[in-house]
Design goal:
The protein has 3 helices and 6 strands, in the order H-E-E-H-E-E-E-H-E. By secondary structure, it is α/β, with parallel strands linked by helices. The protein has 2 domains: 30 residues, no CATH class; 98 residues, Beta Barrel (Barwin-like endoglucanases), CATH 2.40.40. It has a 6-stranded mixed β-barrel. Strand 3 and strand 4 form a beta hairpin. The longest helix has 12 residues. The two termini are 47 Å apart. The mean pLDDT is 86.
């Protein structure tokens, strides 16, 4: 098939060739593969006994409200890309959860799941090993 057309200039023919044949630099990039990791997961609430200072304020300055799907992460997980605002999936929990708090430096490979004011739900969750994905 010839793309030559006397009514089209050379530039238009080249553009038509790219559109018809495709071009590697024009194709959308494949999505980055999801990361997955096994961590220890605990639960926390907005109570004075469970936090330092203001129980409604995260280490990143985000104001907590019951119903938010928030997690705190250990600092080693931040280094792996789980930074403030990153959404994750947690085995055993529905939906997406957002990184919005940072744990004390003594913890590694650990997340803390926010259960608002529901202390009983946090106790039921307890401490467990889960897989997270982001």
């Amino acid at each position: 098939m010839s793309l030559r057309n006397p009514r089209l200039g050379a530039g238009a023919c080249a553009l038509l060739a790219v559109l018809v044949c495709g071009c590697a630099w024009f194709r959308p990039a494949a999505p980055a593969p999801a990361r997955e990791l096994e961590v220890t997961a605990t639960a926390f609430n907005s109570t004075r006994g469970q936090t330092d200072g203001n129980p409604m304020l995260t280490a990143f300055g985000i104001e907590l409200r019951p119903g938010m799907r928030i997690v705190a992460v250990s600092r080693d997980l931040e280094a792996l890309g789980l930074t403030v605002g990153k959404r994750i999936r947690i085995e055993g929990l529905d939906g997406d959860w957002e990184v919005a708090d940072r744990m004390d430096a003594r913890w590694t490979r650990k997340i803390d799941v926010y259960f608002g004011n529901d202390v009983e739900a946090a106790k039921r969750w307890g401490k467990r090993r889960v897989r997270i994905r982001w």
